[in-house]
Specification:
Layout: H1 3-26, H2 43-51, H3 53-57, E1 100-102, E2 107-109, H4 111-120, H5 133-152, H6 174-184, H7 186-189, E3 196-197, E4 206-208, H8 226-236, H9 246-256, H10 294-299, H11 302-315
Antiparallel strand pairs: 1-2, 3-4
Helix pairs in contact: 2-5, 4-5, 6-9, 8-9
Bound molecules: heme C (2 copies).
One heme C is lined by residues 73, 76-78, 80, 184-185, 187-189, 208-211, 217, 223, 229, 233, 237-240, 244, 252, 256.
């Protein structure tokens, strides 16, 4: 058993002993609610955290000490069907990719710190403590997903997934994107991108998640990059009928990402090696001498920026462009 596995087992044993103790103290009159998954380091609790993130970790979660997420999104708002849908933003084969070097952090990153990356940016919240039952449970869930994925020998390509997004060689146009939004997205995501809550209570999360505004992902999130968003939108949206062209996905992604959203502090510390910064990063600083404006980096055209960066990387013998999730 690897040291990290051994530690997980140990923590799980300690936690379940503690829970058992609690249950005994509760006495016989307490009926266990079959819908409540105990706070234990199990894959099932991890799956629940990814599905019902707003209820369990959101700003209105029942237990105030668990309010780590800054929004009422669920992880599954982006990682569809708790990450089990193959293709874009699938979490099926994610664990074998870690630990690895993260250009954004400038250091090695394991699965727990990758999850916390989404907590602090996509969920606009706080990092979970590294040894928390929650982080371990999510990691266990992702490990289990990967085992099942390998056993199935499946491909990570959804059967009905449209062809992969190829970026048009021009600047993305948010004004055109607004028209596309009104025709294809407004019905679910709302006039102001505010989404639609599942019930009146934000704790229960969204039926249709917000795309911008105070309860959305922040400006340091992967989804805030026009190309990352366009790739996801082309593959998945409108939900159930993803039929946008590359041009439409590109412009609507630009429209969505030109709207106001929460700001993440300290973004200038990201990518300590600026040569490793993705060329479509919408925030600076950029490599010294970079002739492109911040707006160019945000909306393109991307080919000249990519070419400029590829040349500098090769000259510096820096590692190739980072693989994108
Ligand atoms: C039929 C309703 C529907 C339509 C139409 C629709 N979406 Fe969505 N969208 C959803 C749902 C539901 C989710 C969350 C996924 C889930 O719960 O399975 C989602 C998730 C998203 C997300 C990721 C989560 C977030 O809040 O950031 C983005 C981005 C997104 N949609 C963009 C769009 C865009 C752009 C369009 C128009 C081209 C669109 N959607 C059309 C229902 C819809
Ligand atoms: C607003 C959309 C969004 C939400 C919400 C979100 N993520 Fe992500 N996640 C992404 C994107 C986009 C990436 C791809 C990396 C990038 O480009 O930044 C990613 C990557 C990941 C990865 C790495 C996958 C791999 O194969 O390397 C993991 C693990 C992950 N997310 C877990 C989570 C968890 C757990 C939550 C909830 C706590 C969450 N995410 C919430 C958008 C989201």
């Amino acid at each position: 058993m690897s040291p990290s596995k051994a530690r997980i087992t140990l923590i799980a044993a300690v936690t379940s002993a503690a829970t058992l103790g609690g249950a005994l103290v509760m006495g016989q009159s307490e009926q266990a609610d079959p819908n409540v998954i105990p706070r234990e380091a199990t894959a099932e609790y991890g799956r629940r955290l990814i599905r019902d993130t707003a209820a369990l970790l959101g700003p209105n979660a029942e237990d105030p000490s668990m309010r780590y997420s800054g929004s009422n999104l669920d992880c599954a708002s982006c990682h569809l069907q708790t990450g089990t849908t193959p293709g874009q933003l699938s979490l099926l084969p994610s664990t074998p990719r870690y630990p690895r070097h993260s250009g954004r952090d400038g250091q090695m990153q394991d699965m727990r710190s990758r999850i916390n990356g989404c907590m602090e940016r996509s969920m606009n919240g706080q990092a979970l403590p590294r040894d928390s039952v929650e982080l371990i449970a999510m990691e266990l869930y992702l490990e289990k997903l990967n085992d099942q994925y390998e056993a199935m020998g499946a491909t990570n390509q959804a059967e009905d997934e449209p062809p992969v997004f190829a970026w048009p060689n021009r600047r993305a146009n948010p004004d055109v994107g607004q028209v596309i939004y009104e025709q294809n997205c407004v019905v679910c995501h709302g006039e102001n991108g505010e989404g639609l809550l599942e019930t009146g209570d934000p704790k229960n999360g969204y039926l249709f998640p917000p795309l911008w505004g105070p309860d959305s992902y922040n400006d340091g999130a992967g989804m805030h990059r026009v190309l990352t968003a366009a790739r996801f939108i082309k593959a998945r949206m409108p939900l159930g009928q993803p039929d946008l062209t590359d041009d439409e996905a590109y412009d609507v992604a630009a429209y969505m990402n030109s709207q106001a959203r929460p700001h993440k502090d300290n973004l200038e510390a990201d990518y300590p090696d600026l040569l490793r910064k993705p060329f479509d990063s919408p925030y600076g600083p950029y490599v010294e001498g970079d002739p492109f404006s911040q707006d160019d980096h945000k909306y393109g055209p991307f080919q000249p920026i990519r070419d400029w960066y590829t040349e500098r990387r090769e000259a510096a013998q820096a590692p190739a462009e980072e693989e994108r999730g």
